[in-house]
Amino acid sequence: MELKVGIIGLPNVGKSSLFNSLTNLNIEAKNFPFCTIQPNIGIIPVPDNRLQKLKDIVNSKKVIHSTIKFVDIAGLVKGAHKGEGLGNQFLHNIRETTAIIHVVRCFNDRKITHITGDVNPIEDIKIVNTELIYSDFEICELAINQIQKKNRNKKNISNLELITLDKCLKHLIKNSPLRILNLSADEKNIISRWNFLTLKPVIYLANISEDNQKNSDYYQKVLCFIEKENSKILKLCIKKESDLMQFNSKEYKKLSQSFDTQRSSLDKIIQASYKMLNLHTYFTVGKKEIHSWTVPIGTNALEASGKIHSDFKKGFIRAQIIAYQDFILYKSENKIKSLGKMKLEGKKYIIKDGDIVRFLFNI
Ligand SMILES: Nc1nc2c(ncn2[C@@H]2O[C@H](COP(=O)(O)OP(=O)(O)OP(=O)(O)O)[C@@H](O)[C@H]2O)c(=O)[nH]1
Ligand SMILES: [Mg+2]
């Protein structure tokens, strides 16, 4: 499955406006529920200040960032799992993502329609989560039936998948998301093909109003509510960010500085999403360009080499590795080499975040 972060929530809570701010795109974000029907997809660079530090040392001409994919998905309503508000299609869009940003309205604005009439972040979260739980429940039941049917003629089957699905079903029936169920890595792995929505990692994004004070109540409530979930929460005033987008980049820079740390909040969202996808970065460094490459945590050198070029993988000999901190400290490859801090590693070496890598290959 492709690695991407889905932006979800009730209708009209600011999902498309957030998507626009993150991607610098200009898709429709108007004051009516279900403004978005088809998912919008945007690919954006992951901010990483290590790149600039490397550039300053090597004096390279170009910097190429890793990227991350965001999908802006239509709003969910009560009954979505039964097809309300095109719910099944929207739930399918969510199923195709790897991780979720759940936007929660924490702002008061009479002009902006709230689908249930009142701003109530906890109830809003519950509506969305319940739909995801119901949908998982149905899939879980279906999966159990399918497996039982397949094994009908076999006696005494000990099927880990079936046992795990049963454990999930018992948990879902309590209206509880699977991400708080205690599942081992093996159990998670064996049920991964069912792609459960409530097993996807989530960041709750509190969309606060310009006047922070007024909304701190809403935010605090969300904070308390999600504590038991062990999920991450971030806050942002999406409107402020949308307003800033109207200016050109020079004006934006000036304004955003005066608007405290708004841009850095966007960066935080991107970085947190990247982490949620279980990804990290290695670098290739040269005069022509500094390039950051994305790999899932736990990737070995051979797989990582294929990320750059299939020839690197085919003709892989060794990987030259310098730790990021050493590069920053000693600033010269020769010096690092003479200190014995440049390592020659084989195919099975597990790439670490920030490694500066040169692949030696023969084709
Ligand atoms: N006051 C205020 N208005 C906001 C904020 N965020 C979004 N809006 C407004 O709310 C309306 C809906 O925003 P969208 O970004 O289209 O919301 P959505 O969640 O994508 O809506 P659907 O696609 O219909 O589900 C727009 O008129 C936005 O300008 C906010 O932080 N404060
Ligand atoms: Mg939208």
Automatic annotation (TrEMBL):
Q: Which UniProt keywords apply?
A: ATP-binding, Magnesium, Metal-binding, Nucleotide-binding
- Stated name of the protein: Ribosome-binding ATPase YchF
Recorded GO MF terms: ATP binding; ATP hydrolysis activity; GTP binding; metal ion binding; ribosomal large subunit binding
Tell me where in this chain the TGS domain is found: 278-361
UniProt entry tagged with the keyword Nucleotide-binding: yes
InterPro entries xrefs: ATPase_YchF/OLA1, Beta-grasp_dom_sf, G_OBG, GTP-bd, P-loop_NTPase, TGS, TGS-like, TGS-like_dom_sf
Which GO cellular component does the record give, naming just one?
A: cytoplasm
- In the UniProt record, the gene name given for this protein reads ychF
Q: Which organism is it from?
A: Candidatus Tachikawaea gelatinosa
Which residues are in the OBG-type G domain?
3-256
What are its cofactors?
Answer: Mg(2+)
Provide the binding site for ATP.
Answer: N12, V13, G14, K15, S16, S17
Stated role: ATPase that binds to both the 70S ribosome and the 50S ribosomal subunit in a nucleotide-independent manner.
From what superkingdom does this record's organism come?
Bacteria
Q: Which family does it belong to?
A: Belongs to the TRAFAC class OBG-HflX-like GTPase superfamily. OBG GTPase family. YchF/OLA1 subfamily.
